[in-house]
Hints:
Elements: H1 4-23, H2 39-59, H3 65-68, H4 77-102, H5 120-150, H6 155-169, H7 176-193, H8 197-216
Helix pairs in contact: 1-5, 1-6, 2-5, 4-7, 4-8, 5-6, 5-7, 5-8, 6-7, 7-8
Amino acid sequence: MNDRGKLYGWLTFVAVFAALNYSTRFLPSKPNRNILYTWDAAVLGLVQMGIILAIVLAIARDRPKEEYLGLRRPSSWGLAAGLAVLVLVGVFVLSGILAPILNPGDEQGLVPKTWHPDRAAAFVANFIVVAILAPVVEELTFRGLGYRLLEPFGRWTAILLVGLLFALAHGLVEALPILAAFGSGLAYIRMRTGSVYPGMIVHAAFNSLVLIVAVAT
Length: 217
C-alpha cells in the first residue's frame, strides 16, 4: 500500500502540535503548578485527547487497525514484561543522571509539588486523563500509526524518529533527551512485540509514578 499521503498527513499533524506546544513557552505567564487540581484542566485534556484520537483514526481509517495501530496481542507477554522493566528502569536512570544538569522535572511546570486533599476529586479526574487516557492516545499516535508509517524506511530509523518526534511534540527543551529516549524505548517494544498494548501499560505506569511521587514527597 502507498502510504505517502498518510505519512505526510501524520507528519504535518505532529509538526503543528509541536509548534503549538513550543509557542506556549513565549507566554508571559508562568505555568500553574496546581493546574491538575482544577476541573478545567481535566476537561481541556479530555477534549485535546479526543481531537488527537479523531485525527489519528481519520488518517488510518481505511487501513487494518491491527497492523497500522498495533491493536493486537503481543507476540509474547513475557518478552513485553521484560522490555517494559528495562525501559522504565532506563528512563528513570537517565532522568537521575540528567536531572542535576537539565532539571527537566520542573520545565513543564504542570506537576504539583504538594498534596491538596480538599481538591482530590479534580486531581483524580486529571490523573485519569494524564496517566490513563493520554498514554493510550499517544501510543496510538506515535507507536501505533507513526511507527507503522515510518517502518518502511527501516525499523531502527522508525524507532529513533518516533522517539524524537514524540519528544518534540511535548514542546519541551530540557526534557527532550529523556522524552526521546523514552519514546524510542516504547517504539522498540512495539517493534519487538508487534503490539501497542505493552507500550500503553509502560507509558501509563511512568506517568502514574511521576504524579504519585510528586504529590507524595
